[in-house]
Amino acid sequence: MSKKILFIDRDGTLIAEPFDQQVDRLDKFVLEPDTIPALLRCRDAGYTFVMVTNQDGLGTPSFREEEFRPPQKLLLDILSSQGIEFEAIRVCPHTPADRCDCRKPKVGLLLDYLKDTTWSRENSAVIGDRETDITLAQNLGVKGIRYDRKKLGWTEIARQLVDAPRRATIVRNTKETKISVTVDLDAPAPIQLSTGLGFFDHMLEQIARNAGISLVITCEGDLHIDEHHTIEDTGLALGTALRQALGDKRGIGRYGFVMPMDEALAQVALDLSGRAWLTFDAKFPRENVGEMPTEMVSHFFKSVCDNLALTMNMSVTGDNTHHMIEALFKGFGRALRPALARGAGTEIPSSKGVL
C-alpha cells in the first residue's frame, strides 16, 4: 500500500499558540493536550509525518533565528524521545506582504510531494488549526482536518484516522456487464444484492451475513447469452472492493477457518496473504441450481481470490447440491469474519512487514 502522510501544522496544533502568535521563548512553549499519544497511534498505524508551518518574519529583527531555534529544538527533542520523527520539516519565513509562493495555503513548500506519485492522496491528510490548513489540504488533493482543542482534539483526530471505517466502492463496466460493488468491513448493513440471478443473490447474501459486513451489489449483465460473465465479473469486482477496503491490513486476523449444512460439510481455510491461489474440491450432483450453473461456483471463488490476492482451500461433500453450494458460500463468509476483524494490534500480521 502507498505511504500515508500527515502534513501537520506547528503553532496552535502541536504546540499552543501564545497571545502574540509567536513562540520565541521557552517560557511560551506548551504542548497541545494529548499530542504525543495521538501521534504514537498514528505512527503505529503507518502514517508518516511532515511538519508544515508559517513563521512570520523568521530571520528578521522582529523574529530572529536564535529565538526560533530553542523552542523548535525542544519540540523535536520531546517528540523524538517518544519515537515520533518527521520525514521533513518545511518552514515559510515570509509574511503575507511578501506574496511568496511558499506560505500556506500555497503549496510551494511541498512541490516535491506534489510531484511524487508514490504516496496515497486518499489516505493522507493535513492537520491544522486554521482555515489556511484546510485550503492547503484542498490544494494538495488530500483530506483536511481542522484541529480545535475543545471541539476536535488530538484524541478524536487519531481515532478518526486510525479507526476509520474500511469502505470501498468499485464500479466495473464492460461490454458484457455493468457492476457496482460497495463494501463496509465494519458494519453489518445494508445488504442489498441485485445481479439478475436469484440463487446467486442468495449466495452473496450468505457471504455478507456470515462475514458480518455490509455488501451492496448491482449488476446488469448479458444474461441473454448466459450467466458466466455476470458471476465471473461480480467475483472480480467483489475481490477488488475487499482488497481496497482492507488497506494495508494492519491489525487484522488474516486467517479464517471452517461449515456444516444439514448433510453437507464444507471446509474453508483462507489467508489474506497477498498471493492469489484457490484449491477447490467439489463434485456436485446437479449441473444447475436455479439460474446458476454449478461449474461457476469454483470460477466465482477463483475470481475473488485473484483480485483479493487471497489464498484459499475449499472442499465440500454432500448429497444436496443446494446445500453444498450454500455451505461453501456460508463457510467463505464465516472464514472471512475473523480474517477481516481488527483487534490484533497495529502491526501488519506478517514477518515480511507487508501483505
Key traits:
about 350 residues; alpha/beta; Rossmann fold; Ribosomal Protein S5, domain 2; five-stranded parallel β-sheet; five-stranded mixed β-sheet; 9 helices; elongated
Please provide a written account of the structure:
The protein has 355 residues and is of the alpha/beta class. The protein folds into 2 domains: 4-162, Rossmann fold; 167-340, Ribosomal Protein S5, domain 2 (2-Layer Sandwich). The chain has 9 helices and 16 strands. The protein is elongated and about 90 Å long. The mean pLDDT is 93.
Task: Note the run of SSEs as H and E.
Answer: EHEHEHEHEHEEEHEHEEEEEEHEH
> What's the name of the CATH homologous superfamily of the largest domain?
Imidazole glycerol phosphate dehydratase, domain 1
Any idea of the CATH class of the largest domain? Answer: Alpha Beta
CATH-defined architecture of the largest domain? 2-Layer Sandwich
Question: Would you tell me the structural class of the helices and strands?
Answer: alpha/beta
Oligomer: single chain
Cα-atom Rg, whole angstroms?
A: 26 Å
Number of strands: 16
| Main sheet: strand order | 3-2-1-4-5
Query: How many structural domains?
Result: 2
Largest β sheet strand count, sense and barrel closure: 5 strands, parallel
> Helical element count?
9
Helicity, in percent?
25-40%
- Uncertain regions spanning at least 5 consecutive residues: none
The percent range for strand residues is 15-25%
In CATH, the topology of the largest domain is named Ribosomal Protein S5, domain 2
Report the principal-axis shape: elongated
Averaged pLDDT: 93
N-to-C CA distance:
9 Å
